[in-house]
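Thread title: Can someone regenerate the structure for this chain?

I was given the following input by a collaborator and told the matching structure tokens would be attached. They weren't. Posting the sequence so someone can regenerate them.
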Amino acid sequence: MRNFEQKVCLITGAATIGLAIAEKFLQQGANVVVGSLDLGSDKDFKSSYGDQFDFVKTNINNDSELASLLDFTVEKYSRVDVLVNCAAAYGDDGAATTRETWLNTLNTNVVSAAIFGEMVRPYLKDSGGNIINIGSVSGVFPHIQRWSYPVSKAALLHLTKTQALEYAADKIRVNMIRLGHIWSLPFEGLTKNDRSHADQVTSPFNLMNRVANAEEVANVVAFVASDQASYMTGSETVVDGGYSVQGPEQHEPLFPKLAK
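Best answer:
Regenerated them for you:
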């Protein structure tokens, strides 16, 4: 299915998940522009997709660079149909997090999504487009020894609902995809690229006994951004392998253990 034929998708963040989302849109016929400090991959997207794909080096915490990213997109395509706010800062030292790290994490994960959403808003209004914000289970469930990242994702969830409420007047849908454990740059770095170790460690925290592939996220993003999800706005679509449905006992029954 080519649900995005001739449509224009603008994505911030070019790490594993952002690029998987970009590729899914490209496969469905979209023109894609990615804004990030670096491409985050050795893959030659230009060779695979030609003029359908553009990367624009962008510091998303700089309003003038965000404006330049949007200007590039509009000058080339004259429209924007989908904005995906995927860029994220992971700086977090728990209770010891410095003010500088706090502000950078909030600035990257929340403020930039708000500012850029408002910049892109007129073009999304014209195209009947929508915004996807990439959230995290961290924004719903507190995580010990992590403060600034979970708080930023909680704020992004509220921003998503606020944008949905405000932008409904322009017929712009705004939704969040809430992620659990995804095989991505943070996991690759922490495990020294040991996927089986990541699966083993995260197994108690989800019902699938593994981390997800970035492509599994991209599949859901593409659906929620498509016309097939035309009645969805202000929603959270959860891609967490069942993380959110478990209580403190997770998926191991307590009573049999007590009876031993």
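DSSP finds nine helices and seven strands in the chain.
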